[in-house]
Specification:
The chain is an alpha+beta fold. It contains three helices and five strands; from the N terminus they run H-E-E-H-E-E-E-H. The radius of gyration is 14 Å and the shape is globular. The two termini are 17 Å apart.
């Protein structure tokens, strides 16, 4: 199985594991390079913009983790009144970004319960690529 189909498989598997489905999932590198994405059929995104924001967000969260001695960075969160975005660090190079359209603490808690397994699966795949 080639790497692109493996990334697509894991993205679909990840999407399906959430009780409340994310509107989109994007994997990029910490340097802003595209790795893969999955977008719900009724959704359009500016993929280049999302990838740039993923890389910028990764730098932002890494700086906070360093500056405040938080230890190894796992997740970053932006929560607003129309939804939330989670940035999850899969390893050393990849960052997964997910957008949920509902600003609901139950949805957030459900997502955070699933994320460690999703991140572990992506981390294993990331290790195969480097």
């Amino acid at each position: 199985m080639d790497m692109n189909s493996e990334i697509d498989r894991i993205l679909h598997q990840s999407h399906d594991s959430f009780t409340d489905k994310p509107q989109w999932l994007v994997i990029a590198t910490i340097h802003g390079d595209y790795v893969g994405h999955l977008v719900q059929a009724d959704t359009s995104i500016e993929l280049d913009r999302v990838i740039a924001l993923v890389a910028a967000g990764a730098g932002h969260h890494e700086r906070y983790a360093d500056e405040y001695n938080l230890g190894t960075l796992r997740f970053g969160l932006t929560y607003a009144n129309k939804g939330f975005v989670v940035t999850a660090f899969t390893g050393h190079k990849w960052v997964l970004c997910l957008k949920f359209t509902e600003a609901n603490l139950t949805v957030l808690m459900n997502a955070l319960q699933v994320l460690p397994k999703v991140v572990d699966d992506l981390a294993q795949l990331e290790q195969k690529t480097f």
